[in-house]
Each structure stands twice: as structure tokens, then as C-alpha cells.
Design a protein that fits this description.
Layout lengths: L12 H9 L4 H9 L5 H8 L3 H14 L2 E4 L6 E4 L1 H4 L2 H14 L7 E5 L24 E5 L10 H5 L4 E2 L8
Antiparallel strand pairs: 1-2, 3-4, 4-5
Length: 171
């Protein structure tokens, strides 16, 4: 059976969202932006994605209003917009679902509420204080299932506790 070319005939919020984030690699690009990866070269190295595909995904995310491109300093950076930041609960939920059903390995990343260092439950609620922190108030750390074999600078930087949305400087 041939696949359709889009969801335009669907009167559905999920279909409209998939038009924006449903392409392969798009959610991983957004994930890395939450981790603070902003430069094209860093995204390219960390994701092991082709230059053409990354260019296409970044252009689509900028056009859709989830990212904005800043070109100051000779190294363009991609920064999440309000719409992009609002995608955090989906990223978090997909990660938790993948931890639970997508692998037999323990979680590769642990998220904690930065204010009190409490772990987040499967809904993103802090187990210590009951807050529902936004990504700007969440720290990410390698979990027990983290793969430390990668040698790129971004992977090395992400082996430390890191506040989401804070730029990762790779060089």
C-alpha cells in the first residue's frame, strides 16, 4: 500500500503536529536543542545525521516557529522559541515511554528539579516538592543506561549535570 504524502486531509490536532515534528530526526533535533546544543556543527556531530537532512530539519523548525536562527559571531545558533519550549512535555513523555517500553536498558538520562534536586516522576512532577517544573528549571544527568562510548565534544559535555536550555559549549 502506498503511503500518503501528508496529513492535510485530517482534521486532527495530532495530524497537524505531525506535519511539523513528524519527520525522521526532527524530535531528536529538538531534544538536543533542549540539552543546549545550538550550533549546526555540534548538532551534526552529536546526532550523526547527514548535513542535508539536518539543514532541512532546522529550516522546517525555523519556518514552523519552533526555533529561531541567530547568526551573530560567525557561528549560527538555533534557539528554541516559546512554541519550541512548549514541546518539552512531549519530549519528556517520549523519553519516559522509550525508557519503559522501547528498551530493556535502564534510563540513559535522569531529570531532576533544579530547585530542590528532586527526581521527576513519569509525568514530570517533582517527587520532592510536587512542582511541575518547566525545562528551564530541570537538570539533566547521565542515567545508569548512559552510553559513554561517544567521543564528540557535545557527548562529553552532556556527561555532566546540565541545566536544560543552557548552551553547551563544545569548543
Amino acid at each position: 500500500m502506498a503511503l500518503g504524502t501528508g496529513y492535510s486531509a485530517q482534521n486532527c490536532s495530532i495530524a497537524r503536529a505531525l506535519e511539523i515534528v513528524g519527520e525522521r530526526w526532527t524530535v531528536l533535533v529538538l531534544r538536543d536543542c533542549f540539552y543546549g546544543v545550538r550550533r549546526f556543527s555540534d548538532l551534526l556531530a552529536h546526532l550523526d545525521i547527514s548535513r542535508a537532512v539536518l539543514t532541512d530539519r532546522l529550516s522546517s523548525l525555523v519556518e514552523a516557529g519552533l526555533l529561531v536562527r541567530h547568526a551573530e559571531g560567525g557561528h549560527p545558533e538555533y534557539v528554541l522559541t516559546e512554541a519550541g519550549i512548549a514541546f518539552w512535555p512531549s519530549i519528556f513523555a517520549l523519553g519516559r515511554w522509550g525508557d519503559r517500553f522501547g528498551t530493556a536498558n535502564p534510563p540513559s538520562r535522569i531529570y531532576t528539579h533544579a530547585d530542590c534536586r528532586g527526581d521527576l516522576d513519569d509525568r514530570g512532577v517533582c517527587l520532592s516538592c510536587g512542582a511541575f517544573p518547566g525545562p528551564e528549571d530541570i537538570d539533566a544527568s547521565p542515567g545508569p543506561g548512559a552510553d559513554n562510548r561517544r567521543t564528540d565534544a557535545v557527548s562529553a559535555a552532556l556527561r555532566q549535570r546540565h541545566r536544560l536550555l543552557t548552551p553547551v559549549m563544545s569548543g
